[in-house]
Amino acid sequence: MLQLKDLSFRRGPNLLLEGATLTVYPGQKAGLVGANGCGKSSLFALLLGDLHADAGEVAIPVGWEIAHVAQHTPDTDRAAIEFVLDGDRELRQIQAELAEADAAGDGLRHGELLGRFESIGGYDAESRAARLLHGLGFAPGDERRAVNSYSGGWRMRLALARTLMCRSDLLLLDEPTNHLDLDAVIWLEGWLKSYPGTLVLISHDRDFLDAVATHILHLEHQHLTLYAGNYSGFERQRAERLAQQQSAFVRQQREIAHMHSFVERFRAKASKARQAQSRLKALERMELIAPAHVDSPFRFGFESAENLPHPLLRLDEAAAGYGERPILSGVRLSLDPGDRIGLLGRNGAGKSTLIKVLAGDLSLLSGRCERAQDLRVGYFAQHQLDQLHRDDTPLGHLRRVDPGATEQTLRSYLGGFGFAGDRALDPVAPLSGGEKARLVLALLIRQRPNLLLLDEPTNHLDLEMRHALSEALQGFDGALVLVSHDRHLLRVTSDTLLLVDGGGVRPFDGDLDDYPAWLAASERESRQTNEGDTARESGDRRQQRRQAAESRKALQPLRNREKQLEQRMETLTARRAALEEALAAPDLYEPDGKTRLLALLAEQRQVGADLTATEDAWIEVSEAIEQFQSDV
After folding, report:
1. In terms of domains, do 288 and 404 share one?
2. Does residue 551 lie within any of the structural domains?
3. In sequence order, what are the beta bridge partners of 111?
4. For residues 304 and 477, is the Cβ–Cβ distance under 8 A?
5. What is the pLDDT of residues 260-283, one digit of tens each?
6. What is the pLDDT of residues 180-190, one digit of tens each?
7. How many domains does the chain have?
8. What pTM value is reported for the model?
9. Rounded distance, CA 94 to CA 100, Å?
10. Which positions make up the signal peptide (predicted)?
11. What mean pLDDT do residues 93-106 have?
12. Which residues constitute the domain of residue 426?
């Protein structure tokens, strides 16, 4: 069992955990939740032995195999499947010993090792690794590609597959659904539910936590509390505890009334369509969980749009793609105020392409796109985080959007997005990915759009911000089109589901709970088609190799930049670790150490800002590579 005994630790001068005592038993699956920056990742580092406690201890059974996802994937030309197989350390050790026994001509030793090899499933290991890769979205044949031929997002999937390959006793996963599409999230959820070991999982995806977690570890105000049940159960227990505080109870009643108004408004207009009924149930559930979020730091909403023309936008026989190759064709779509559309479909099917067409960022290859004269588009995508002005402040960004508002009005507005007080005056450069995403959303909402296009808006957002966003979207009176792997957000915001598949866009026959069955059926059909096409495809391999060579040549500058940024991140990460170790020295906090302490703290802030900027640049380059690969 995993035990914490009166555990306390700090990072530099900041106390993150104090006096934690709890036990996680074998086979339990604990979701670790808490606000961004509260110390969740630091607790993982402590469990891995990368940090040391200031008091108390962590007790992990001797001999337990611990698996976690490495922060960086090495730049190697080894085949992806070989990289994943490395995750099973015992397998690799036995294979090495078999080679030694062969070289020494030791038949007896060779026979013993073969027995061990069979007992750990060595003969099925490659098949197991291929299934992991396929589940995480890799196409057949991709397992033989070199690791360094993949973009940053796909290398993260490789690192996750390698971690799952380990036959571990304790599995530590920190935001494993980031950079996964909905298909891969659904697969990972099923895999983790059947995982026999002990799991500690950091996630901001409530549906994922509900499906996987048997317990919730809540880190708040330097205290760690273990709750039995999944995330929804934790919310109910926390709401009951908060209700014992009179001030919180009053706020809870306001939140319940606020959500109740949305539920009743939607109930009056909800059709009998399965997804509309699914959304109604999700809203009713939100009404029940509202009391658990009364102490959230995030409070914001959409003001009414100035104009709501009908229709806002219409596509007629539209075809879109990159170069001359269409990804989508024959698309007919009309968007009116009040429409709530969630897009489903496999990675690379064209969901983001459709969003870009609607946003006006991608021209049609053919067909028509008619836009209302008063159309105002609010478009959120991950690349916009990198378009923020690094040296400017949140207040400065907002002032450009709304120059006529008073400073107090703008600062009050920013406070609802977590930029209260002097945080509104801090430069953007050192902000985390989640903070930048909150700022982009704040700027977007302030522009009062009547068409809202959200492409994976919850990446980097914690649970409280996701809840605030899902609640705010209930009051939006324009049209919404959403791409997200966060099923909870899809449930509470989407009345209509459209499936992007096979180059077309069509209504999805069912609700979100039917989508996994569609995926499974589609997968079976795809396998049958692939088997039938094998002979024909063999004649196209020369052409494919030529195209692959051309793609590699075009990608080389991006690859070189990605490698430079990875080396820079490794250097900065090492320096940050050295600074944290130096800051742990007790003599620094004596009067004579003040000068050196201030110097180290200043360098720590600078290194942190440089690391954040480098990570952001790496994500931008990785996404550019990934977009290029999905488009060819």
Report:
1. no
2. no
3. none
4. yes
5. 776 777 776 766 667 777 777 777
6. 889 999 999 99
7. 5
8. 0.71
9. 10
10. none
11. 89
12. 313-507
